[in-house]
Amino acid sequence: MAYGDWRVLPEPAMLWVNTFILFLSSVFFQKAKNFSNHYDFRGARIYLILAGLLTLIFLFGQIVVWKTLVSYGYFLSSNPSFAFFYLLTGLHMVHLLGGLSVWSFSVYKTFNEDISVNELRSTISLSTMYWHFLLIVWIFLFGLLLAT
Question: How far, in Å, CA of 52 to CA of 102, rounded?
């Protein structure tokens, strides 16, 4: 950017690791959906749990990124570009936390034998679609960060 108050934010390597972790969690959601489409809800449960664990690792990784940036002196109030980074990644984290609540409901449903098969498949399918959306949003945000 050509503006004096818009400084470039460094790219901690952990952002790349986090991107891979989020991608892998999306892959695991897709595997869970594939298992549920074949009526293998035990397999779906395993991949749902793995996807959720990876998401928690991603969230922890984001906190590590924030702490790293703060330790280098890149504070929220220091610069508009830093504020946008913290705001956008923070909003993404909020959406992931909301997704984890739906995820936990999906995992719960895989243990509940009173749930209809179609309802369970639908829940897993919608959770997977939401996760893919969050991955696309993250890739867009990450690309935006790299471009600025």
Answer: 11
- In the predicted model, is pLDDT for residue 4 greater than 70? no
47-84 residue pLDDT tens? 999 999 999 999 999 999 999 999 998 888 888 888 88
d(CA 37, CA 90): 34
DSSP for 98-139, written as a single string: HHHHHHHHHHHHHH-TTS-HHHHHHHHHHHHHHHHHHHHHHH
Tell me the C-alpha to C-alpha distance, in Å, between residue 16 and each of 66, 95, 125: 14, 20, 27
CATH superfamily of 13-147: Cytochrome c oxidase, subunit III, four-helix bundle (1.20.120.80)
Amino acid found at 20: F
Domain boundary assignment for the chain? 13-147
